[in-house]
Amino acid sequence: MIRFVDVWMGYAPGVAALRGVNLRIEKQEFVFIIGVTGGGKSSLLRCIYRDVVPQRGKVFVFRKDVTKMLRREIPYLRRRVGVIFQDFLLLPHKTAYANVAYALEARGAPPRMIKQAVPEVLDWVGLSRKMKALPSELSGGEQQRMCIARALINKPDILLADEPTGNLDPDTSVGIIELLQRVNSRGTTVVVATHDEKVVNRFKNRTVRVEYGRITADRKEGGY
């Protein structure tokens, strides 16, 4: 499903974000990518959905080397790879319904499909009663659920989450990871980058540690 082959990447000369990364994530896995802020977790995720291109190495997603992907191919990749961002990136003047619908509108989905799909996915994440609410009217956990709904609306094969519990209290954080596990149980491959030790230790999923751009541990049964 996802494979890194000797990937090296830096944002400035002499500053490496990823150093010789080799990693394989199989279909339907749930994987935590752990490590301190600035250690390379986000860079690893950004390579998967072709937000950045490494200077060396290959990144295979769906058996295709995305480092060689043509610009016109990238939107099709991102329809199959949903992304949840740490800072939400919600449209502040649009309702929950409109924020999620926008992801379908952007790819030209017909109105009839949008009217059916958006309420279904909002109900699935527990926001059926908040469809008309603006982001500012929702709690942090509800905003994150809206982000998850937006990422799921295109029914992606892979879901990437970059610090999805970073701004949330412990109980809300647990609820968000439980929701992501439900997503995984439906057959979606889920990759979560986090430095939240309590969350990682509570959920015994495969855990890959990244430190200073290198993978230093890969545990099948998890643990920080």
Could you give the topology of this structure?
Layout: E1 2-12, E2 15-25, E3 30-34, H1 41-48, E4 56-61, E5 64-65, H2 74-80, E6 81-84, H3 96-105, H4 111-124, H5 140-152, E7 158-162, H6 170-185, E8 189-194, H7 197-202, E9 206-211, E10 214-219
Parallel strand pairs: 3-8, 3-9, 6-7, 7-8
Antiparallel strand pairs: 1-2, 1-4, 4-5, 9-10
Shape: globular
Helical amount among residues, as a percent range? Answer: 25-40%
By CATH, the superfamily comes out as P-loop containing nucleotide triphosphate hydrolases
Question: What portion of the residues fall into strands of 2 or more residues?
Answer: 25-35%
Q: What do the pLDDT scores average to?
A: 93
Counted up, domains total: 1
Class of secondary structure makeup: alpha/beta
Poorly predicted residue ranges: none
Cα distance, first to last residue? 24 Å
Q: Work out the helix count.
A: 7
What CATH calls the topology is Rossmann fold
Alpha-carbon Rg, integer = 17 Å
**Secondary-structure element order, as H and E?**
EEEHEEHEHHHEHEHEE
Please state how the strands of the largest beta sheet are arranged side by side.
6-7-8-3-9-10
Described by strand count, sense and barrel closure, the largest sheet is: 6 strands, mixed
CATH-defined architecture? 3-Layer(aba) Sandwich
The overall strand count is 10
CATH class placement: Alpha Beta
In a few lines, what is going on in this structure?
This protein has 224 residues and is an alpha/beta fold.
Description:
There is one protein chain. Helix 3 (96-105) runs parallel beside helix 5 (140-152) and helix 4 packs across helix 5 (140-152). This protein has a single domain (2-92, 140-219), classed as P-loop containing nucleotide triphosphate hydrolases (Rossmann fold), CATH 3.40.50. The chain is globular. The strands form two sheets. The chain has a six-stranded mixed β-sheet with strand order 6-7-8-3-9-10, with helices on both faces. 33% of the residues lie in helices and 28% in strands. With 224 residues, it is α/β, with parallel strands linked by helices.
